[in-house]
Amino acid sequence: MQVTSTVDGQCAVVQASGELDVATAPELRSYLHQLVDDGARTVVVDLTDVGFLDSTTLGVLISVHKRLVEVGGVVELVVPHARLLRIFQITGLDRVFTIHSSLADTTV
């Protein structure tokens, strides 16, 4: 897994790549929570280059969502691939997160 971000004021765009699973989830959680602690109120997580994600990763995204809701913020996801989008649909998380098909479709 690799994670990079671009921060502009209270907006952070996070680009993840590789596999997001039980082994990488703690690092991802720390990274995203640090962005929130540093003042990000809109966090866009771009999953374009993610080949696999598991339920642990979904838990990380939910935890960041909850932290941001508490401070009036939001998490948006970029999920261009049907195989990953299906995971969000099956779990009902497509009703929790705003999901875009490309970074260009986001509000940032």
Automatic annotation (TrEMBL):
Pfam family membership, one: STAS
The organism's taxonomic lineage, starting at the top: Bacteria, Bacillati, Actinomycetota, Actinomycetes, Micromonosporales
Matching InterPro entries: Anti-sigma_ant, STAS_dom, STAS_dom_sf
CDD domains per UniProt: STAS_anti-anti-sigma_factors (cd07043)
Entry similarity comment: Belongs to the anti-sigma-factor antagonist family.
Domain STAS: 1-108
Protein name stated in the entry: Anti-sigma factor antagonist
Transmembrane segments: none
